[in-house]
Write a sequence for this structure.
């Protein structure tokens, strides 16, 4: 896990449960299309490749589901160059990072919030968690009738 030990410790203090060597396979929705679970599969480290790295390989028959009603995809720390092309109403800076209201996490697109590396560039897990908390508070306000 590419994180400093204190970041892992702080994450655990915040209530994070780490599912190491676990790969999400699919998102499962209810009849209305709302998320209800994530289907996962356990992984194990395979034999070292020519570079010496042991890559994860699927453990056959290890599928399981985690109940969920929200999924936040957080992979990598660089801006996806497709964002300005596919979502032109989300403002980005010259590096392609999404611009937000720093107090709320709101983007320029109504109903869309952001934080973490896509806003800051590469930063710490703790800063991303803080961004997530601020955005979650704003999402709650937005979804319960607050004005945009």
């Amino acid at each position: 896990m590419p994180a400093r030990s204190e970041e892992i410790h702080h994450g655990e203090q915040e209530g994070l449960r780490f599912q190491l060597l676990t790969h999400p396979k699919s998102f499962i929705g209810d009849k209305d299309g709302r998320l209800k679970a994530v289907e996962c599969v356990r992984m194990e480290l395979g034999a070292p490749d020519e570079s010496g790295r042991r890559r994860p390989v699927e453990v056959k028959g290890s599928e399981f589901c985690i109940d969920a009603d929200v999924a936040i995809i957080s992979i990598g720390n660089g801006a996806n160059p497709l964002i300005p092309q596919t979502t032109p109403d989300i403002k980005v800076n010259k590096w392609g990072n999404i611009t937000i209201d720093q107090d709320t996490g709101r983007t320029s697109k109504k109903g869309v919030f952001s934080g973490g590396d896509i806003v800051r560039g590469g930063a710490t897990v703790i800063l991303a968690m803080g961004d997530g908390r601020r955005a979650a508070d704003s999402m709650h306000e937005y979804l319960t009738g607050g004005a945009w």
In short: Residues 125-143 form the longest helix (19 residues).
